[in-house]
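Example record

Each entry pairs one chain with its bound ligand, adenosine monophosphate.
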Amino acid sequence: MLNIALFGPPGAGKGTQSKTLIEKYNLTYIATGDILRQEILDGTPLGMEAKDIIDKGGLASDEIIVQILENRILANPDSNGILFDGFPRTVVQAYILEGLLLKLNTSLMCMLSLEVPEEELIQRMLERGKTSGRADDKEDVIKFRLQEYQDKTFPVAGFYSQKKKFFPINGVGKQEDVLKRLTKAIEKNLENVWLNIVLFGPPGGGKGTQAKKLAEKYNLVYISTGELLRKEIESNTEMGKIAKTFMEKGDIVPDEIAIRLIEGKIKMNPNAKGFIFKGYPSNIVQAYILDGLLQRLGTSVTGMLEITSTTLQSIKRLSARAKTESARVYDLDPEIIIHRLEVYEKKAPKVAEYFQKQNKFSSVSGEGNADEVFQRLSLSVESLMKKIR
Ligand code: AMP
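Structure tokens for the complex follow.
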């Protein structure tokens, strides 16, 4: 999800710029001020509770704001992303936003702050007051709102600066010029959003072949836990020695080892456009681990793509591979092949369900030749790209 917070004092032009941005990037618009005004107009209990304080230019309570946000977010479950206008307005609300987005398995991409000198803000709001009908666009209330901004809202900038997510934008000048500055900042941030794909499916389903080709086509870094482990074994490292005993039996290796290898590989590629994971996660524990690991690195799984394959197809492919140079030790014994397929059948449904619940799962038919499967996978990758760009 592409989540942006438009920040800045009242009168900075957040509402005006939002209209174009939500269209351009296909975002759900959440303007807490607009929603509160509508609640007041509709005479809802929430609106009635907030009316007095809003008319005076104060801030509505966090309880009210959380209810508004939850309603809006729940009403748009398949959103491409959210543009927040007028929220977070306090450091407490910044924590609330972090929690809300975490619940949606996403995070804030950036906070763009429209910077306009105070005298101009006052002039703009007085001008707006002639037609807006807003009780808070009057001189004394405007001054109080600006004071509230200085005291309570401005510290939010520090919260996001620390996270390196805060970007000041000059908000003075023609509307289209300000828009250009905002768009430029968004595009720059988008370049840094990773596309993280998990390729899933039974052993012998063609994941390795396809993942490598996809990595090349979309300029992603290929992470195969199996391959990383084989390298450790070849180099006879401590991790390799431990891993070997598990791999020979067709069993999965302890998670401590896989975590270190994956994290190491990601950290070696800080300028990557994203990653394509193969062979991990293979069970529900690893699904949690991967989510935790990526979150620690400030990113997340964009989507899981499953390549479907029948058991017969898998056995045929694995036995065929056994006769080639890329034969793995665990391809040579039919009993081990069956064991691996059984483990997959047992563990896979929970992993799939884990990502389905996050709206991040899709299936691609593994039927036909490798090129046909690749075409289908490419389409799925492109639709995942749209999700983040
Ligand atoms: P705005 O339309 O963003 O200028 O907001 C108008 C008024 O709505 C503010 O002065 C506050 O009284 C109230 N309001 C809007 N957003 C929030 C928020 N996130 N927290 C508390 N009060 C808010």
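Residues 334-357 form the longest helix (24 residues).
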